[in-house]
Design a protein that fits this description.
The protein is of the alpha/beta class. It folds into 3 domains: about 170 residues, 3-Layer(bba) Sandwich (FAD/NAD(P)-binding domain); about 110 residues, no CATH class; about 120 residues, no CATH class. The protein is about 35% helix and about 20% strand. The chain contains 15 helices and 19 strands. The strands form 5 sheets. A 7-stranded mixed beta sheet has the order 7-6-15-16-17-14-18. A 5-stranded parallel beta sheet has the order 9-2-1-13-19, with helices on one face. The longest helix has 25 residues. The two termini are about 15 Å apart. The model has no long low-confidence stretch (mean pLDDT about 95). The structure holds flavin-adenine dinucleotide (FAD). The site of flavin-adenine dinucleotide has 37 residues, from helix 1 and helix 15.
Length: about 500
């Protein structure tokens, strides 16, 4: 008899694991609280014809998705048309410098020479790039794409050698600063830890791998939008026989001794399964579905689990085109550290916020009506905190962001051209996807929440409960959660042999 697996959540990690497990012969049912799959990878289509990806917009480290499709005996190119964005994005500094970041070394060299007027930094860029490439090549197989079963899987002579020789443990900002003197380049090569929701002043320098994913491997875009990834994975999973049940919120995982036995769904039915793979955010799942403190079952550590930052979102349909904007645009605050400290230390709404603007119809014109732009704005903010009352504070914060878009991006008439608008706060991330503390990026990636120290993908008390997703190993981001789904599937397969 096939073993029955319940996958709780149809995020990318859940979809990946479900498809792989079904291919291996398990009887897989995915239960998803929302009406559609994808979780944070979601799509908003408006009656006026604007289409937004509401969460991720940058497809990095394509190799992880290629590998997944290969394991599923599929060719990724049959499912989506991928475009490499060149330049990757434009950065706007507060001194007025506009810098085009690229994977092309010749173009980067030219930008550093022409825009930053700093010949000496070119040599340093080349030597930093060489460091990043080595870091990436050694980190992914040795620390990321692997299951940890015991401490010696993490602390052993080989890993200690890598940790020391690649100087993986200081902060990324200090590592980057040891190469560059121009603060603008320090910002350019360290802000990527914000994709993980952690300050570059705190993130261990091993997370330079994210900088490399971007500056070395490039940013891709699936034509039609990021949601293509979700549609493709759901399709493959169905071809392998996975059953999907939407609008089905698991409200409890029922236990008997050291095993989970069944699920309460939408507060009513109880259904039995042999194995349980939780894709819902791990600390939420411990607290709410398993009735355990989220610290329990984790590697011993002091204090509470730390959450990542969150994101304030604006999805704006405008009836004109701002042709100065590229597909991806990053606007830095005038004081890099002060802005990050507002988010991570003081936990207040940033006074002078950095923000990111995405205009996907630059690459695929079908995503906005003719002569219009679909404008996605992401502002890094603290996760839910008593310091911010979004009902009270949102109107003024929205005005601040529109003012900044006007000042920093020359969008002086933006207010007159908005014909569609939706905003999304940390409270919405919490209620829509059950993200613990409204953290958009899951548990933080501090040293003691990375690799072996990150909450592992199998429960220590319940032998048949597993986890996949941004808050377990290896971490947040599309490539990481795809790896996470595949690691969890591998672990289930090994444990049930
Ligand atoms: C604004 C934003 C921008 C981002 N940008 C990027 C980017 O550009 N590039 C990148 O690589 N990554 C990006 N990320 C990160 C990326 O989106 C996530 O790492 C990834 O999508 C998380 O996938 P997941 O499978 O772990 O979880 P989720 O997407 O959270 O999926 C979990 C699913 O479980 C469901 N669920 C929860 N509780 C229950 C329950 N009780 N019963 C049933 N179902 C339940 C949820 O509804 C959800 O569908 C971004 C994230 C955000 C929020």
């Amino acid at each position: 008899m096939k073993k029955k697996v319940a996958v709780i959540g149809a995020g990318l990690a859940g979809l990946s694991a479900a498809a792989l497990l079904a291919k291996k012969g398990f009887d897989v049912t995915v239960l998803e609280k929302n009406a559609t799959p994808g979780g944070r990878v979601n799509r908003l289509s408006t009656p006026q014809g604007f289409t937004f990806d509401t969460g991720p917009t940058l497809l990095l480290m394509l190799s992880s998705m290629k590998k997944l499709f290969k394991e599923l005996d599929r060719d990724l190119n049959d499912y989506m048309e991928l475009k490499l964005l060149e330049p990757s994005y434009r950065v706007y500094y507060s001194d007025g410098t506009e810098f085009n970041s690229s994977t092309n070394i010749a173009l980067m060299t030219k930008e550093i020479r022409d825009k930053l007027k700093n010949e000496a930094e070119i040599e340093r860029y080349l030597s930093f790039f060489s460091y990043l490439s080595k870091l990436y090549r050694l980190t992914i197989p040795n620390f990321v794409d692997r299951n940890y079963r015991r401490l010696s899987d993490f602390i052993n002579p080989k890993s200690l050698y890598y940790l020391a020789s690649l100087k993986m443990l200081g902060s990324l900002y200090s590592r980057v600063s040891s190469y560059f003197q121009d603060e603008r380049l320090r910002m350019l090569f360290s802000f990527q830890t914000m994709y993980l929701g952690i300050s570059p002043f705190e993130a261990p320098s091993v997370y330079g791998v994210v900088t490399y994913m971007e500056s070395g491997e490039g940013i891709y875009f699936p034509m039609g939008g990021m949601y293509k990834i979700v549609e493709s994975l759901e399709k493959v999973a169905k071809e392998y026989g996975v059953k999907f049940r939407y609008n089905s919120e698991v409200t409890k995982i029922d236990k008997d001794g050291d095993k989970a036995t069944s699920l309460t769904i939408n507060g009513e039915k109880s259904e039995t399964f042999d194995l349980f793979l939780v894709n819902a955010d791990l600390p939420y799942a411990y607290e709410t579905l398993l009735g355990e403190a989220p610290k329990k079952n984790l590697v011993p550590q002091n204090g509470e689990l730390k959450s990542s930052s969150s994101a304030y979102m604006m999805y704006l349909g405008v009836d004109k085109q701002y042709s100065n904007l590229l597909h991806h645009n990053v606007v830095f605050s005038s004081d890099y550290k002060f802005n990050l400290d507002d988010i991570f230390e003081r936990r207040v709404l940033p006074d002078d916020p950095a923000f990111y603007v995405c205009v996907p119809n630059r690459s695929d014109p079908s995503l906005a009506p003719e002569g219009s732009d679909s404008i996605y704005v992401l502002v890094p903010v603290p996760h839910k905190t008593d310091n911010v009352d979004w009902t009270r504070d949102e109107p003024a914060f929205r005005e601040k962001i529109l003012d900044k878009m006007s000042e920093r991006l020359g969008m002086t008439d933006i207010r007159e051209h908005i014909v569609y608008e939706k905003t999304f706060t940390p409270n919405d991330w919490a209620s829509e996807y059950n993200l613990w503390k409204g953290s958009a990026f899951g548990l933080s990636h501090s040293f003691f929440q990375s690799a072996y120290f990150r909450p592992q993908n199998r429960s220590k008390t319940l032998g048949n409960v597993y986890f996949a997703g941004a808050s377990t190993t290896p971490g947040n981001g599309i490539p990481m959660v795809i790896i996470s789904g595949s690691l969890a599937a591998k672990r289930i397969e090994e444990d049930t042999k």
